[in-house]
């Protein structure tokens, strides 16, 4: 396998890395409007399916429907022909709102006990609700359900939490079956301890031309998290790159952070560092607050969290769109498009958003030509941006100075004439 730079990996695993015991922001955000809709965590797996008519704020902010219209104009389904492996707590098949391909179960229970994997799958490929309101970024894609844990905090010995070993098993299975099942994306919204076996499994997946997606790390919620003592509060200069994995495997991973767009506290924008970690591993970002997705019972529901797991799932959906729209391009080329079109800052990459917030429609429509290694000529990338309207350049007029002087002499002459007319009666009386 050829050597690769930080941005030139044959395949990138977009990993939303989460603190060990605090997967994907499970604590609800305390914001006023959030209570108006049912949070996904409120449903039990055996509850009757419910629904929400709430707008998905991240879908609007990302312009998901614009990307869907591009597909519709070509007579295609958004994400069609792409399968996304979700290594998580399992995906619901109730209500039929996600097209699921059953994969292996490396957990202990057969039945679902936790909503997390269903929420991730819904964000990636949930079908639109009645009336057309969007759920998933790539509703035409299929999800391959690879269960690697039962729930984050097991309640008894019949359940298993998140472990490095199970994630390695899941990745090895994906690597062995990626070609047979046409898996083009892997989502890992988990954080585990690094190991040689984990690094090797990621390399095997990348060698199959698969892009994998997950999280750059949430701020620990309590002292049950091993990262709590170091990251409970934000400190200037914070960088979680060496503490959160798989996001820390820089050459193979595109890490995804979350933004706090739309989240307000007492009418003021929320501070994103209260919820996520800064990390130089961050490659791109996505908003998550008030996203609409699925719970374990098949209900459509709202996620009232700013969390990197949800952000990773959304980016997995964007990657599925790109793999569907550009079926002949490899993983390097897809990731190059993803990053080159992200809405970054003028100062370059940052530890909170990397190259910036992903832009699905822009990534599909901007005329870029990444080579097979994922490189894009900088000049070509800049020239391909949609030009902004500007005023035309003024033309040089050689007679302008002459005309200006004539105008001024005319004004002065006219003013003298007016003055003479005003003074004429006065001068006439004096002569009498």
3D architecture notes:
It contains eleven helices and eleven strands. Residues 1-22, 24-36, 383-402 and 426-432 have low confidence and may be disordered. By secondary structure, the protein is an alpha/beta fold. Helix content is 30%, strand content 12%. Strands 2-3-1-4-5 form a five-stranded parallel sheet, with helices on both faces. It has a two-stranded parallel ribbon with strand order 6-9. Strands 7-8 form a two-stranded antiparallel sheet. It is globular, with a radius of gyration of 28 Å.
Summary?
With 432 residues, the chain is an alpha/beta fold. The protein is built from 11 helices and 11 strands. The N and C termini lie far apart (113 Å).
Features:
11 strands; alpha/beta; disordered C terminus; two-stranded parallel ribbon; 11 helices; disordered N terminus
Q: Could you outline the blueprint of secondary structure elements for this entry?
A:
Blueprint: H1 57-62, H2 64-73, E1 83-88, E2 100-105, H3 116-125, E3 142-147, H4 164-181, E4 183-188, H5 196-206, E5 211-214, H6 228-231, E6 255-259, E7 264-265, E8 268-269, E9 282-287, E10 291-294, E11 300-303, H7 308-325, H8 331-340, H9 360-365, H10 378-383, H11 400-431
Parallel strand pairs: 1-3, 1-4, 2-3, 4-5, 6-9
Antiparallel strand pairs: 7-8, 10-11
Helix pairs in contact: 3-7, 4-5, 7-8
């Amino acid at each position: 396998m050829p050597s690769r730079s930080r941005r030139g990996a044959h395949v990138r695993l977009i990993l939303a890395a989460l603190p060990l015991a605090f997967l994907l922001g499970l604590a609800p955000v305390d914001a006023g409007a959030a209570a108006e809709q049912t949070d996904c965590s409120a449903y039990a797996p055996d509850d009757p399916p419910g629904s929400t008519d709430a707008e998905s704020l991240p879908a609007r902010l990302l312009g998901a429907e614009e990307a869907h219209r591009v597909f519709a104009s070509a007579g295609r389904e958004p994400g069609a022909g792409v399968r996304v492996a979700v290594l998580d707590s399992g995906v619901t098949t109730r209500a039929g709102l996600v097209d699921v391909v059953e994969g292996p179960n490396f957990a202990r229970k057969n039945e679902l006990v936790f909503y997390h994997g269903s929420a991730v799958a819904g964000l990636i490929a949930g079908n639109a609700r009645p009336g057309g309101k969007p759920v998933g970024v790539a509703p035409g894609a299929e999800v391959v359900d690879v269960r690697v844990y039962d729930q984050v905090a097991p309640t008894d010995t019949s359940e298993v939490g998140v472990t490095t070993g199970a994630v390695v098993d899941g990745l090895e299975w994906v690597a062995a079956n990626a070609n047979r099942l046409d898996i083009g994306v892997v989502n890992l919204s988990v954080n585990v301890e690094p190991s040689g076996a984990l690094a090797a499994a990621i390399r095997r997946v990348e060698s199959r031309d698969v892009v994998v997606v997950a999280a750059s790390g949430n701020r620990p919620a309590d002292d049950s998290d091993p990262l709590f003592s170091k990251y409970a509060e934000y400190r200037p200069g914070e960088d979680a790159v060496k503490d959160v994995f798989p996001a820390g495997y820089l050459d193979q991973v595109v890490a995804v952070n979350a933004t706090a767009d739309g989240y307000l506290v007492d009418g003021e924008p929320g501070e994103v560092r209260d919820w996520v970690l800064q990390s130089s591993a961050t490659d791109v970002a996505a908003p998550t607050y008030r996203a609409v997705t699925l719970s374990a019972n098949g209900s459509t529901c709202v996620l009232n969290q700013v969390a990197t797991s949800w952000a990773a799932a959304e980016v997995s959906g964007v990657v599925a769109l790109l793999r569907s729209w550009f079926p002949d391009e490899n993983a390097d080329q897809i990731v190059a498009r993803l990053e080159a079109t992200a809405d970054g800052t003028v100062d370059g990459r940052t530890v909170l958003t990397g190259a910036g917030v992903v832009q699905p429609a822009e990534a599909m429509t901007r005329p870029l030509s990444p080579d097979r290694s994922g490189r894009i000529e900088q000049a070509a990338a800049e020239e391909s941006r949609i030009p902004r309207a500007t005023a035309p350049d003024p033309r040089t007029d050689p007679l302008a100075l002459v005309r200006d002087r004539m105008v001024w002499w005319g004004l002065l002459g006219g003013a003298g004439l007016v003055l003479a007319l005003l003074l004429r009666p006065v001068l006439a009386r004096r002569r009498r």
